[in-house]
Amino acid sequence: LVEMKQKFHVSSLIVVFDSLTHDQIQKNVVLKDAIDFVGGELYVSNGKINPIIRKINITISLIRLLLKFIKGVKILHFGALDVKPLKLFGILFKKNVYLFQSDSFRHTYGKYDQYLGMSPQYCYPIGKNIVAFNDLMPQLVLFKNKDKKIFNFGETRTRQSWVDYSMLRSNYYFRHYHANVDISKGYVVYILGYFGDLKQMSSPKSMVDLFKKTICILSELNIPVFIKPHVFTDINIVNKAIEGHDKLNISYLHPTVLTSNAVCFICNGYSTIMADAYSFGITTIEYTDYNTGLLLRSENKSLGYEYIDYFINNDIALFKETITHILFDGYKIN
Fold it and tell me: Is the entire prediction scored with pTM above 0.85?
């Protein structure tokens, strides 16, 4: 959408139906600014405190969208128009409906879905157009799509227009949101996830234990660390763990901005953000605690092995040694 705005002066309206997504947009200042740059956000669920106001706002928003659809605007979605209640819009305006692939990178971890108890459901695309970012788009694999126009777009988050847009603004974001952090010689980025029970881990407490051990190692570094929470991260646990550690900083900046001068990215459970870092030539580390069954199936590799340089399973000594090896000579663990 940024590229469309820059090259073709096409504006876009980002439609959001749930408060969780809306709240995350507000926190992710880079994403929020980008949305404002391309056009703006329409939050359909406004007025949730008062049921009457909420219904009025939803009705007005849907009428506004309907009028735009009648005028022939292009409708881009990730599956919302293939299921009720928005499926009717998909049927009525299918010539202008474009289903986008949800994963910008070529991940193969879907082969572990059955073992992990996951069974994602994909509906047949209602619209006449499909935009794929790679050949693993589930809707292309599962359905014949003979009546569809297929657009092979390639990775979105590494397109030059987005990279230039983000990097040109990265200094501003760091000065504005992390003014007291010296990033001139680099920094470490630590990607967080859900602290609860994950089926790929050896214990229900694995994620919390890994987090505490990782913080223990990172707190010894003479280099700034930016900790990026996930939408489901228990931020109270994070705040308590980093209290008193000046070099540990919570950040809600976009991953692309965080790659601008990063030394390495770290996670405890594979995150697609690691693909962002890897694509920009930044070293990626997954320090985790997979269970034995998953390790056998993955051949001792990460679920996202394509984008992980160092996979370390439940070996804190090796993790510490790896960090020491990667960091610049001026940033050694005490």
Answer: yes
